[in-house]
Amino acid sequence: METKGILCPKCKSKEIIKRGLIKNESREFTQRYGCKECNNRFVLDNPYFRMRNKEQIITPCMDMYYSGMSFRKIAQHLQRFFPKGVSASTIYRWVLKFVPMMENFTDKQKIKASWQIQSDEVEYKRRTSHTSKGIKNEYFIDVIDMDSRFIVSSQYASDRKTNTLNKVLGKAKRKVGEQVKIVSTDGLNAYPRVLKKTFGFRTHHGGKIAKTSKVIHQVIKSDSGGFNYKIERFHNTLRERTKIMRGFHGCITSAQTLMKGFEIYYNWIRNHQGIECLTPSQIACPNVQIENKNGWLELIERGYNG
User: Fold this and answer.
1) How many angstroms separate the CA atoms of 299 and 97, rounded?
2) Which contiguous run of DSSP H or E holds residue 60?
3) Second label for 107, Cα 20 to 30 Å away, from 21, 51, 174, 267?
4) pLDDT tens-digit profile of 133-160?
């Protein structure tokens, strides 16, 4: 029985037939194919190729993690329902494997932005050793759209210097284009220089306005009574989620991946009460909707195929 739309990975022939099923310990049965031309036997490549566990177990674990459960508690939960269970370190590796895959899709999307975006930073501590000297102060820097609450750009970084802010704000500029009129930040001294380079701006309190000025830089200082309440509301949600981590451990790359996963969860998976229980992506990316109820599954597939 021939199959249409399948090519042999070895010789690219279309003369493919089904050659039985492969059964492994956890994934049960997988269809195997054979090539009539070169006699090659293969299974179709997919994001979960050669993994012992099904995507129906992997994606719920990722959802539970970003909803607030620790890796250890998720592993304990699985052991109650699956005889063999999954270790906490395995779930951790799943997150590190599939978040960059989803990022391959989500970071390519241009957004429908409002007239104002807000940028701010959250301080975190990362433990590099078991001694008190092995703790580093680092930052999660993010830019959020005011209307949709969509996280336009973010980065977990070792500092908040000009070069780091340039990367975050530069990425935001590439996504929003010329839609934004006001960029709100706190009083960090590096912001005016960064916004001048990435957006071109004029200050909100007057002064000389350059001919190339494109946006207004609105400075909201905590001691002035101002409050970037929408981005601070997101930061409260972020702190609530990350407090169970008790600080990041290991290399900064893993911390960056974990935080990127939270950005994807916040933008594309989690319903937001402030925008009528929609996801921010439903407003910011109206032409790119997630149709599968298991949003993790669809994002992984789109990132893998993209």
Assistant:
1) 13
2) helix 55-67
3) 51
4) 677 889 999 999 999 999 999 999 999 9
Q: Are residues 246 and 128 part of one domain?
A: yes
**Dihedral sign, Cα of residue 230, residue 231, residue 237, residue 240:** negative
Note whether 135 and 239 are same-domain residues: yes
Pairing of strands 248-249, 116-127: parallel
Which residue in this structure is represented by tokens 């003369």?
A: 15
- HSE of 283, CA atoms in CB hemisphere, 13 A: 20
The domain in which residue 3 lies consists of 1-45
Q: What's the CA angle centered on 89, arms 86 and 94, to 5 degrees?
A: 80
- The verdict on residue 32 lying in a domain is yes
**For residue 78, pLDDT beyond 70:** yes
Q: Which two tokens stand for residue 162?
A: 């000009």
Distance of CA 19 to the CA centre of its chain: 39
Question: For strand 28-35 and strand 16-24, is the pairing parallel, antiparallel, or unpaired?
Answer: antiparallel
Eight-state DSSP code of residue 266: I
Q: How long a stretch of residues is the chain?
A: 306
Q: Which residues contact 6 (CB under 8 A, 6 or more apart)?
A: 14, 16, 33, 44
Alpha-carbon separation of residue 145 from 204, 213, 214 (angstroms): 19, 20, 17
The pLDDT tens digits of the residues spanning 213-266 come to: 578 888 887 655 555 677 888 888 888 888 766 556 678 898 899 999 999 999
Tokens coding 229:
């309440």
Q: How far apart are CA 112 and CA 118, in angstroms?
A: 15
Please report which confidence band the pLDDT of residue 50 belongs to, taking 50, 70 and 90 as the band edges.
confident
Residues 24 and 121 in one domain: no
